[in-house]
Sequence to fold (284 residues):
Amino acid sequence: MVTTALLSEIETILAREPVDEVFITLPRETYGAVVNQVIRVCEEQGIIVRLWADTFQLHIAKSHVDELLDGTPVMTIQSGPSDGWQIIIKRLVDIVGSLALLVTLLPLLAVIALCIKLTSPGPIFFSQERVGINKRRFRLLKFRTMVQDAEDHQQQLEHLNDADGPVFKIRADPRVTRVGAVLRRFSLDELPQLLNILRGDMSLVGPRPLPLRDVNNIHTRWHKRRFSVKPGLTGLWQVNGRSNVSFDHWVRMDLEYIDHWSLSLDLKIMLKTIPAVLKGSGAY
Fold:
């Protein structure tokens, strides 16, 4: 009964709070079943697990032995990309790439901002709370593509949802402005997220960040492993049909990216993004 309550409490915390790592010091002789279940829960969601060095049967994650400051050996179990020089280079590419794009696209950004201001009352930018790495929340920036009070009317439009799974999307959303429709068609509304990348909330490449409404509707545990890496401006979903694919397929593409991540894969996705955006397939 105690072990069941302990496991339930851990699952509740992982579902509710931003968690980077879980450190397990329970003796396996007594709590072996609980330890294995905790590892499975963390493994499915991409959360790092550290425990006293031992051997466990893993299905997705990889393990390696680390040392604490006092030299105590611990085993690290990790199903997301491991920290290393490639992650450092990825961050450098994010900084340099986003800065270069902001400077290069500055005239275009100014024209878009002017068009929004002249054709629709309300702010130029739209800010919304999204869920990032390890379920940390951040404010995502976009060019405003809808009427000013669009979020206030979402509940009334839930029955028109065209998207599969927990996400909310409408092909002919009545809240979208004329300028907004063009921006969405070519994903130009996403350009302000270059500032999110500079701040470190996002990366140039990664799973798309979801709104709180969508995340709260995700009840399949393995779907949550997409939160084990930084969300991105583009990714496999953007270059493979976007909203034309099911949510389950969308998440599987995210996990494929996580499991096979490399700098060369990021480069391939970025090169494929330009023709995908110009084609505009699945963008609404």
